[in-house]
Amino acid sequence: MMRRGKKWYKSRTLWTAIALVIVQIMDSSELIIEQLEALGWSKEAIALARLYATMLLSIAVVILRLDTKEPIEK
């Protein structure tokens, strides 16, 4: 349970968990792409799916990178 007054989006654990879920999805992205090809999706749709997968992975990397930075002391 979070402390009173602390905003949910300031939880480092939450953002780390979100990033790790994205990485797990990305781990199986090639399998998903192969299934889309087998279903007969167009090359453009598959390219768009790959683009979205790359964007999600980039977001996960940024989240994990921000989580590992030490806070700036004033």
Order of helices and strands: HHH
Task: Round the Cα radius of gyration to an integer and report it.
Answer: 17 Å
Fraction of residues in helices?
over 70%
Biggest pleated sheet: none
In terms of per-residue confidence, which ranges show pLDDT below 50 for 5 or more consecutive residues? none
C-alpha end-to-end distance: 28 Å
The proportion of strand residues reads under 5%
Q: What is the helix tally?
A: 3
DSSP E strands, number: 0
Shape: elongated
Brief account:
The chain is an all-alpha fold. The protein has 3 helices and no strands.
Q: What is the element layout, followed by pairings?
A:
Layout: H1 12-27, H2 29-38, H3 43-68
Helix pairs in contact: 1-3, 2-3
Key terms for this structure?
74 residues; mainly alpha; elongated
Please provide a written account of the structure.
The protein has 74 residues and is mainly α. The protein has a domain at 28-68. It has three helices and no strands. The protein has helices at residues 12-27, 29-38, 43-68. Helix 2 runs antiparallel to helix 3. The protein starts with 11 loop residues before the first helix and ends in a 6-residue tail after the last helix. The mean pLDDT is 80.
